[in-house]
Write a structure and sequence with these properties.
Blueprint (H helix, E strand, L loop, with lengths): L2 E3 L5 H10 L5 H14 L2 H7 L1 E4 L3 E5 L5 E4 L4 E2 L5 E2 L2 E6 L6 E3 L2 E5 L2 E5 L6 E5 L3 E4 L2 E4 L1 E10 L4 H20 L4 H18 L3
Helix pairs in contact: 1-2, 3-4, 4-5
Length: 198
């Protein structure tokens, strides 16, 4: 399941990340900014059920050859201590700032091209084949990271997301429907209890 969350990073966050690039403590400060925004974003955490988030990598892609479609490594870290269940790419500039350079996902439904908006986060299962078309002008700034989830199976994460999102909508638009709220909360918690590996 490919999901898009707008406004994960603010304009101020993005300016700070671009300023930090190349500084000696860039990785630590970038990790602090990005991680705090992701851990506090309710839809991101609902979608990925994070246990661990890797240190984010800030990248600038300029005129280049395409990056061929591939699947992210299943295990990361010097001692293979981190299972990469979910990938996330956050755009630090808008698609109008460059030509070419589409992010392309290949899934059961075919090819899906993405041109992100500044601050938008794209979340995808780690097993999803994806690549980049060549940038013909301008540059693309992104942050990439991976998540180890407490729910390993992407189909189960999708079910939890759908139930949790429905619960959120009932809480917002039908708070008087307490029986429905209770039923959805029970369902979500019991599924999480059955599938989570904390």
């Amino acid at each position: 399941m490919l999901l898009r969350f707008e406004g994960v990073l603010s304009a101020g966050d993005i300016d700070r990340l671009r300023e930090l690039r190349g500084s000696t403590d860039h990785a630590d400060q970038a990790a602090a900014i990005v991680s705090s925004r992701l851990w506090s974003h309710p839809l991101f955490t609902l979608a990925v059920q994070p246990r661990h988030i890797t240190t984010p990598i800030v990248t600038e892609r300029t005129r280049n050859v395409p990056k061929l479609a591939a699947i992210d490594p299943a295990v990361l870290g010097d001692r293979n201590e981190f299972r990469a269940d979910v990938g996330a790419i956050i755009f630090l500039n808008d698609g109008e700032d460059y030509a070419g350079g589409d992010l392309v996902f290949h899934g059961p439904a075919g090819e899906e091209r993405v041109r992100g908006r500044s601050g938008e986060c794209i979340v995808y299962p780690g097993s999803t084949s994806h690549g980049w078309l060549a940038v013909s002008s301008g540059s693309i700034w992104t942050v990439q990271l991976w998540v180890q989830s407490i729910v390993r199976d992407p189909r189960r994460r999708e079910i939890l997301y759908d139930v949790g999102y429905s619960l959120h909508l009932v809480q917002l638009f039908g708070p008087e429907r307490t029986a429905d709220l209770t039923r959805l909360e029970r369902c979500h918690n019991n599924l999480l209890r059955a599938w989570a590996e904390p």
